[in-house]
Amino acid sequence: MSQLGIILQARTGSTRMPEKVILPFFQEQSILDLLLEKVKKLGVPFVLATTDNPTDDRICALAVRHEVPVYRGSENDVLDRFIQAAKSFGFSKIIRVCADNPFLDLAGMQTLVTEFSDSDADYLSFQLAGNKPSILTHFGFWAEAVRLVALEKAQKLTSEKLYHEHVTNYIYGNPDLFNVRFIKTDPLVFSRTDIRMTLDTPEDFEIQQEIFATISKENPNFGIPESISWLDQHPEILELMKKEIVKNQK
């Protein structure tokens, strides 16, 4: 039987905002603290994959505090880091989580785990308007799922830097070579182009910190519907998001 596991990728060396994942974000907790606690709730084998750069010792220390095992590998060849992490922990199916998504939706994670457990797909993720996989949007609500054999096949087929930095790009970009499947997202968000909950810049950090704190007061276990509802009541925040989307086109 295929062993499914979650791999969360995190590093401190972000170009646009170094250390964003370990800075205090909500009630002295970092984004990484929040994500580690959230993902643990799924009860699925779980590993944090960071780099072998000494600056990421702090990420390892944080994972140890949360009792989450760590794999350390290449900083720039993230594809290889995932392959080696999966092999080290015996995962043949991987749910990939990025640490720059403080609004990761737990219900969406559960759906992905359930669907991928019984799927023969090489790649499975949520789909938005324009046949876009969620990883290519600015939402930051979802993870994606991939088979180890598909990652290994991609590694053999391409040496292009882009595909080794962006783990799944080659796979969903070549549906003729891989079994690529999608889960259609909620109509509430399917066609939206004005929401940015992925966090890359200091501007993102400031906006999202305010949103997270405000919604958490009303509902500590909030998900996508609560986030969308709050944003629609605050058009001034959506305007700020639109500016960041233009500045950080994917």
UniProtKB/TrEMBL annotation:
Query: GO CC annotation: what is one?
Result: cytosol
Source organism per UniProt? Aquipluma nitroreducens
The protein's name in its UniProt record: Spore coat polysaccharide biosynthesis protein spsF
Q: Which PANTHER family match?
A: 3-DEOXY-MANNO-OCTULOSONATE CYTIDYLYLTRANSFERASE, SPORE COAT POLYSACCHARIDE BIOSYNTHESIS PROTEIN SPSF
Q: Which Gene3D superfamilies match?
A: Spore Coat Polysaccharide Biosynthesis Protein SpsA, Chain A
A Pfam match is CTP_transf_3
Highest taxon, organism lineage: Bacteria
